[in-house]
Amino acid sequence: MEIESIKCIFLDDLVMLEERPFRFEVLLNANNELSRNHLQLKLTFELPDDYPNVVPSIRIKNLSPDIINNNIVLEFDKLVTKKAEESVGTMMIYEVCEALREKIGEMNDIILRKVDELNQKDSLDTALKSVAVKADAPLTFTPVNSETFAKWCDAYKERMRKLKEEMLTEKDLKQTGRQIFDSKKLTIDDLKIEDEDDELFREEGGFDEDEDDEMEEGQAFYDKALYEEGLEEDVDFE
């Protein structure tokens, strides 16, 4: 039952070497992501007939000798032996493998942090060098100062004015009520001026409106000044 379970868990990372007694290998990776996995170990299990009532034979093969030295392998051996002894009487294969995988996983995390720091430093150095090279290159843009900014503002305002004129529709060109009212004010003011001229004419001896009103309809108006002296004629007012 345990053999079938660990086959389902480890899949291709488990290789069966012999059956009854069972002997198999389990590959342990510190990280499931291949590009970030820097540590690997291989455990070889030999299960005696009275397993799990006794500790099985467990051998550790170091697949990362550049990082894991022999002293560390000895520590790993002590770890799995202790875990197996604590699990006597129960199914222990997965527990032993997981305890060792967690240990190399912690070591792998430390390695990843160091690698990330180095990569970040290299990236920063590359970026700084790139900036230094660009700083030595001739300018390909107009530096911003008060004079160039003022010119830009004037040009921008002119572009906006032309764009606004181009976007005007026939409706926009029609006079508003306020504009029509302002244009009519001139006519009204002219009328007032003419009224003032009429008043001035009356004050200087023009027609008296009151006298005109007193004249009855049908009466003739006689202006003696129209006739020269000696040429008076009889006028019939009937």
TrEMBL record:
Domain of life: Eukaryota
Pfam families: RWD (PF05773)
Region: Disordered, residue numbers: 196-218
InterPro entries documented for this protein: GIR2-like, RWD_dom, UBQ-conjugating_enzyme/RWD
Residue spans of biased composition, Acidic residues class: 196-217
Stored Gene3D superfamilies: Ubiquitin Conjugating Enzyme
Domain RWD: 1-107
PROSITE patterns: RWD
SUPFAM superfamilies tied to this protein: UBC-like
Name of the protein described by the UniProt record: RWD domain-containing protein
Organism per entry: Halteria grandinella
